[in-house]
Amino acid sequence: MRERLDFYIDGTQVASGVALSNGRATYSTSTLSLGAHTVAAVYTSDSSNFLGSDNLAMPFTLELDPLPDSVRSEVQQLAGEVGLSSSDLSRPVAALAPLDRLRLRFGRAVALNPRLLLAEHPNASVPAADVTAFAADYRQVVTRRGIASLTLTADRAFAAAVADEVLTLQPATGELKPASFWRRRLS
Q1: What pLDDT, in 10s, does the model give residues 90-101?
Q2: What is the C-alpha to C-alpha distance for residues 24 and 4, in angstroms, rounded to an integer?
């Protein structure tokens, strides 16, 4: 991945494409006058080559090129936990299957051990044949890590697989009812 910074002083670009080395880029100038100045740096990267490992490492560090060994081991452990293979980590994110991109996002979401995970339609882009396996992995990870999970989904089977309690939103009132309430009313 090629990373670079463009530097601006008082709104004027003074350096373009300064390469990062070990996560750092520098620009020096001796032409500034005395007084206050606004200095900005704009980061860009060639994201078409953004690898799965780079993406999964972002909660731990922004120093991606090269990825520090200590972070690499955390990334590999997290990848295994969420169901990604080592080959998934070495491929560009854009080349991953929808299920693997979801697993990557899920890994980033749980990487820093949040107390609550809010997942909105997490399986919407996943082929139906893969939903059951992902639901089982999802539940296993949040249970093992002790994360409370609030999952919003229209997929009843997915909801039942990932949650201890499934509620249904009553649109007219905003009231949440146990899913079994609606089954009783409809039968």
Answers
A1: 998 888 888 999
A2: 9
Cα–Cα distance measured from residue 95 to residue 83, given in angstroms and rounded to the nearest whole number: 17
Q: Which amino acid is at 98?
A: P
The DSSP line for 77-130 is: HHHHHHT--HHHHTSBGGGS-HHHHHHHHHHHHHTT--SEEEEESTTTTS-HHH
**Residues 123, 108: one domain?**
no
Together in a domain, 187 and 129: yes
Same domain, 66 and 81: yes
For the stretch 55-90, pLDDT in tens is 888 888 877 777 888 899 999 999 999 999 999 999
Do residues 121 and 180 share a domain?
yes
The residue range of the domain holding 85 is 48-112
Facing residues of 178 across strands? 167
| Structural domain total, the chain | 3
For residue 10, give every residue at least 6 positions away whose Cβ sits within 8 Å of its Cβ, in sequence order, or none.
Answer: 37, 38
- Measured distance CA(51)–CA(129) in Å, rounded: 26
Tokens 């989904």: give the residue: 153
Q: Contact at 8 Å (CB) between 58 and 108?
A: yes
